[in-house]
Design goal:
Rna Polymerase Sigma Factor, Chain: A; disordered N terminus
């Protein structure tokens, strides 16, 4: 497992266009009001960077796809907490992504330490480490369970994008769809996942 970075990476540099930052903030604020179209635009504009950051931290494609999905579910649930006076929308998103990725790495490391301790010392594992590992497993299980509640076309597109690691263009090609249609299915599936899992659960 790769070392966990101390600081988030991928946040906008000082020379980033102010217009883009403002657009992200506007989309995030509209998402906080339940605007699904705004969330879809925000997802399109930022998902590649979020996934890239997560992948650099966890160094495992399958886990990165799961964590990226969890990141956008949290963004959709907690968009109202964004405060433009404290930083850019993209920095806020990337901070969430970094925290989720670090949590996954630490949980995996705790699980590894637990196994090593058990085999080397043959005694009961530490309760906190077990709880951390169980929590990460439960979150992944909840997401997988929620996937079964999607329509066939939504689940098919979402699984290719997140669990298959394909880009939107590749998903469109595999399903013989226009790119816009593939993106819509992925976005709608993500939003429905959030509603299935439930706010505040």
């Amino acid at each position: 497992m790769a070392p966990v970075p101390d600081q988030p990476v991928g946040v906008p540099h000082p020379g980033a266009p102010a217009g883009v930052a403002g657009e992200h903030a506007s989309l995030l604020k509209r998402s906080a009001r339940g605007d699904q179209a705004a969330f879809a635009e925000l997802y399109d504009a930022t998902s590649a960077r979020v996934h890239g950051l997560v992948l650099r931290v966890v160094r495992d494609r399958a886990q990165a796809e799961e964590v990226t999905q969890e990141v956008f579910l949290e963004i959709w649930r907690t968009a109202s907490r964004f405060d433009a006076e404290r930083g850019s929308a993209l920095a806020w998103l990337m901070t969430i992504a970094h925290r989720k990725a670090v949590d996954r790495v630490r949980s995996a490391e705790a699980s590894t330490r637990r196994d090593l301790t058990y085999h080397q010392r043959n005694h009961t594992v530490d309760h906190d480490e077990t709880a951390d590992a169980a929590h990460a497993s439960l979150e992944a299980h909840r997401v997988r369970t929620a996937l079964t509640q999607l329509t066939h076309v939504q689940r098919e597109a979402l699984e290719l994008a997140y669990f298959g690691g394909y880009t939107h263009t590749e998903v469109a090609s595999l399903l013989d769809l226009p790119v816009g249609t593939a993106k819509t299915r992925i976005r709608d599936g993500l939003i429905r996942l959030r509603d299935t899992i439930g706010v505040g659960r």
